[in-house]
Amino acid sequence: MTTRPRYREESSFKIHGGCGLMGICDESGELMSGEDAILAMAVQHDRGNGLGGGFAGYGIYPEFADHFCFHMMYHDLRAKEETEAYFDQHFLLDLAEPMPTRPVKGITDAPLLWRYFMQPYPNKLEESEMSGEDYVVRAVMSINASIDGAFVASSGKNMGAFKGVGYPEEIGHYFRLEEYEGHTWTGHNRFPTNTPGWWGGAHPFALLDWTIVHNGEISSYGINSRYLEQFGYKCTLGTDTEVAAYLFDLLLRRHKLPLSLACKALASPLWDEIDRMPKDEQDVMRSLRAVYGPGMLNGPFAIVLGFNGGMVALNDRIKLRPLVAARKGTKIMVASEESAIRAVMAEPDLVWTPKAGEPVIARVKGMDWPIHGDLHLPPSEISCAVTGTEQSCDSVEVNA
To answer: Is 393 part of the annotated catalytic residue set?
Structure first.
């Protein structure tokens, strides 16, 4: 009898420290090689310990831009066969192939890595009375929760996540990222604190085209995960970062919150800060905390959210993890260290340190903005922050 690795066991000790991240977006829509992302993470080599690295790229599959692309990890052939049977039942498959990789010293014990370009069967979608995105979310939750040894690394359109056990520069070369071009890239160097390093537990964590890279520790994971379960999300990957990807999907795609409000819901101002705000703004912040209290992220964190329209970087509300930002021309870049930025942007036009809880937003010109807005709204127009579940901001006018 074969003994399977216990992926979800808790580490017997903690090492507080490291983790490094980066994000770069060309707001003009010009494509960049994955080499820039690899370089930025190689500079931050010492922020990790070789137990996890990864990247997400956007705009990398223009020939299949309208297809959902599933990047899959399989522990064995049985898991692959079960997953492909699930795909055959629910999706119209146009291409299935092994992930292109190359041998790299330091990368060992890799799972079976495959990618699939597909679309929901129209009749299945109609029967489900779901949007295509909700249909895919249901598939991701079902595969991760019920097929032993199968893990969805990413599931969006015209994007993909590439991750595994190793230093990020090793992972980047292993997946041949220099052969891809994208308008937005994010990267991560892992230094696990609570859980062991394993391929599915590396960052980015993805759902649809939302991806999260994270430095820190989300101490509210328990209440966050229980809150998400009310909306059909299943946290099965054994790490705190998973909740951040699902929370952004819930707030931005399903509840249609403006981006600035979603960030304030997840990194809420302290109560004494709210008390000093103008009355109208106080009402908004109190409503957000009342409605989304179980979704608020506690603990030290710096995160970068990537999506098919740009990226957002965000610190916790008292900035316990480093985050630096810069702009050069049409490019915006964030990283854990300024040295990573200057390795890619030799002479940036502007370098700054974002304030606690204040997002850095990059938007790709000409692309549909998948978020309802990113400007602060007049409090009188915010109708979505006063009800309990599945609220909508469809009636809100946003000059984005």
So the answer is: no
Instruction: Tell me the residue length of the chain.
Output: 400
Relative orientation angle of helices 259-266 and 279-292, to the nearest 10 degrees: 70
DSSP state of 376: P
Rounded to whole angstroms, how far apart are CA atoms 66 and 118? 9
User: Quick one: how many helices (H) and strands (E) in the chain?
Assistant: 11, 18
Indicate left, alpha or beta for 50 from its phi (over 0: left) and psi (-120 to 50: alpha).
Answer: left
**Is residue 160 scored above 80 in pLDDT?**
yes
CA distance 75 to 148: 8
CA–CA dist 360, 365 (Å, integer): 16
Nearest one of 282, 278, 275, 251 to 359, comparing CA atoms: 251
The tokens describing 13, both together, are 């000790």
| In the chain, where the domains are located | 27-381
279 token code pair = 């009355």
User: Whole-structure pTM over 0.90, yes or no?
Assistant: no
pLDDT of residue 236: 84
Q: Which residue has the tokens 């919150």?
A: 257
C-beta separation of 255 from 285 below 8 A: no
Q: In CATH terms, is domain 27-381 a member of 3.60.20.10?
A: yes
Give yes or no for a contact between 159 and 59, defined as CB atoms under 8 angstroms apart.
Answer: yes
Better-predicted residue by pLDDT, 203 or 33: 33
Structure tokens of 280?
């109208």
- Distant-in-sequence, close-in-space partners of 195: CB < 8 Å, separation ≥ 6: 8, 9, 10, 11, 201, 238, 239
Phi, psi of 98 (to 5 degrees): -65, 145
Alpha helices in 119-219 (DSSP H): 122-128, 132-146, 168-174
C-alpha span between 320 and 301 (Å, rounded): 7
Does an H or E element contain 162, and which? strand 159-164
pLDDT for 238 equals 72
The whole-angstrom separation of Cα 270 and Cα 295 is 15
Residue of 19, 69, 384, 393 marked active site: 19
CA nearest to 322, candidates 17, 15, 53: 17
CA 364-320-9 angle, to 5 degrees, is 90
Q: Tell me which of 142-156, 195-209, 214-228 is least confident.
A: 195-209
For residues 364 and 25, is the Cβ–Cβ distance under 8 A?
Answer: yes
Residue 388 CB neighbour total at 10 angstroms: 8
